Model the fold of this input.
Amino acid sequence: MEELVSEIHLLIKAKFENDINEIARLLKKLGQQLWQKIIKKNEITLNVANLCLNVYKIYQAANKISKENLVTNQEILELKDFLFKDVLKSNNDLNNFLIYIDMFHKSLREIQCKQAKAIINQAQEKTKKFDKVSTIKDGFRELNLSLQKLLSDIIQLAIDVLGDDSINKKNFSVLLLGSWAKGTATPYSDIEFCILINDSDLKLKDTLRRMAYIMNFIVISLGQTALPFNLFQVENETNGIDFDDLMRPGFQFDLGGKTSLGRLDKDYDLIQTPQQMANYIDLNTLDRDPLLVAELIDCEYFFGNKKLYEDYKEMIDKQLRKKDTDYSSFHKNVAKVLLFTGTKNLQADLEKYKINVDKVSHEGKLLNIKTEIYRLPDRLIEGLRLIFMTSGNTLWDKISGLLKSNIISKEAATNLEFITAVALQSRLFTYTTNDSQNENFGIWDTNIVSNIAEVESFFCIDDIADLVKFYQIAIPLYQFVQTSINIEDKNKINTNEKFLDESLVTKATICFRFMLYREAELLLLEANLSGAKDAYFQLFRLYSHLGKPQLAYEYYEKYIENKSLDVDDLFNLGYLKLSLEDHKDALEWFNRIPINLEINNQAMSMECVQAHCNIANIEGLLGNKISESTHLEKAKEIVETISEKRGHIMIDYYISFAKWYASQNQFNLSEENIQKALDFANNFYNKQAHVKLIDINQQAAELAE
Done:
């Protein structure tokens, strides 16, 4: 890629400026240069086919995002002709192949635009929770049958195009992975699969890999595969150029490598004999790639020789039941890892959503439908199944298996089905609304008291109460799974657990998260009257957010009564006093933080940077320029020493320096630091997090004045 660096830099510039025509022109130019590299290769290898597929995606993108048809049909036909005749050794008629592509595209759009939306519409018409759950369950069952029919046709066409006699259904078995195996796939979900073979015949593996390449080409031709932005990299750059906002990725092969084609940076091979594939179910692979292990456990037969699948499942069962070096069962170790990797967002929620009162909160971050909604029931229910080795393939079956094994109560099973339905409906609603694999599920705004209808529209959901109840169930479910990991005897499990936290404070904090500020306030005030001490902190947090510092301070004083003050308390008290324009007291609270941190051997930390920046800002307001400069230099010394640089603190750090340089009439340096703050905000809050960017730009405008 060295010879393409100049074009890549131009592409980065065009992407930054959102110059669509220039992006399309440069994509075509890059594609042509890559195409020439392919033609010049003498050997015919699978890597050539892979590069050819990438060029085809680039050409598709250039056509799709440009107002003009920059790539001629002849170029596309030449590319297809090369791929099929020279690389994949196809003797089939290309025109017949294109007819099938057209048929598949129509089928896919029928599923996406009609069947998927019909499920959402039917669910929204249901007023009773049970009816809504049944609608989603039945709808996804039919949806997955349609998707599997499409994928089966794609596999069969790939086999026909390949025309190789060694492709015999007795010799291999295609297993579905991920959401395709669990019955939760949407028409925009990545296609994930592996292939089992009856023996380690290298020729058979090579033929099946070619079959997978043709499958990938067919899927790419449907026009919803994301651009391979890894191609567009330059030296010393961590990532390539992300074109997702231009391409609208949807129905595509898994970019994470969970297909039989794998990924160059992954050392596993997903075309194996049953025993070889089962060997991945071990602690070494679990440490390196826990999600791969989870998906290889949670697979489902789809195509070919079913006996290979049955043999593989027996081997997996033996692997899961064996004892590890710590004398615990392997299946429990798997459950522990999956619980940790899949529920990081919920772990934060279990800490009662505690955030500081200043601008370091995550209210500007996007909510991710996949990681923060869909994965919670997916990981937690699978975690319980692994702990107790109960039956079930789909999520619905796993809930039934837990109920039949007396691990959970009937009421608990009803609640688990409810959060599964909410997660699936929300994800499908988000994808169909965006007509792409867009995970962004709204954005946390600041200082806006929205009504319920506005919030529902904002989050692509028909009933925000369902989302509140979702978390009321997810929180106790998470705690139950955590406890269950360490229980060896099933008889000691609390089978009466309902998985529904109905406490007023919990419901209020969830309402607060989804911008239902008035509902949160009423719930917290009611909880306060009933003597719930944990309501004090949430009332402080709510009133701080709504710009009522006096009320926030009053409740915080009640919260810290008979409490030993920690660093978070000192920060919060300092910010509250600053909001009340009591600069002297604010300075006193902030000055205590570096002392406290030094006592606890944490002087060289980002918290200390944050404290020094706050002290500097207040000293600047009070006109103490020497002290302001001293504390900024202390913050700079720490930043240059430590490797971890937390985004939200670095944003405030650069803004503090921007203010200092502006006060010294060094406006170029001030502007430079504002730009650094914006760069960190883009990285930390995501490119669409307008709230934080607007906040920084407002401060920049104030400095300019």
